[in-house]
Amino acid sequence: MNVKYHFFRSSYSSQFFVLSGIAFVSNIAYTMTSILFAIFANNIGLDIKQIGLIISAMTLGALISGPIWGKIVDRTGKRKLVLLLCLTGQGVFCLLTPFMKNFLPLFLARFFFGFFLVAQAPILNEIIIKNRDPEMRGKKLSFINIIRGVAYSFAVILSGFMIVLLPG
Q1: What is the pTM of this model?
Q2: Confidence of residue 10 (pLDDT cuts 50, 70, 90)
Q3: Domain spans, the chain
Q4: Using an 8 Å Cβ cutoff, are 37 and 55 in contact?
Q5: What are the backbone angles phi and psi of residue 5, rounded to the nearest 5°?
Q6: 31-165: CATH class
């Protein structure tokens, strides 16, 4: 059932709100873990070089996996399934990170977090671009990018509050 919602005199489907929610939550997870990671890694005793390498691991994972996810989506056409797989992987490795207390496990967790993170934005954009209503494409792409920006801002503020609450 695809219910229509009227928002600023335009028609948005319930599917679009789900896609917007995915973008919001994914960007919050990415931003908060990026901000708080250095503090976490310092608290478990990693030195600055190790922290830098681990932070770089996420970008390396994203760099390697971008073409892989693109090829998988292009060959199978299963955008929603790949999106679900990537969000699950992103969530799992995000949740595993606090339990890793050594360099190599943290490096691998951040690498795979980046590996799964990179696919969500282009897949969401492609689902929106494939919309049948050409008039709504631009509005929906603009709206979802606004959602990403709001999520980023919200995560930065929330991370600031969390840093203040840390003991020590």
Answers
A1: 0.83
A2: low
A3: 31-165
A4: yes
A5: -120, 140
A6: mainly alpha
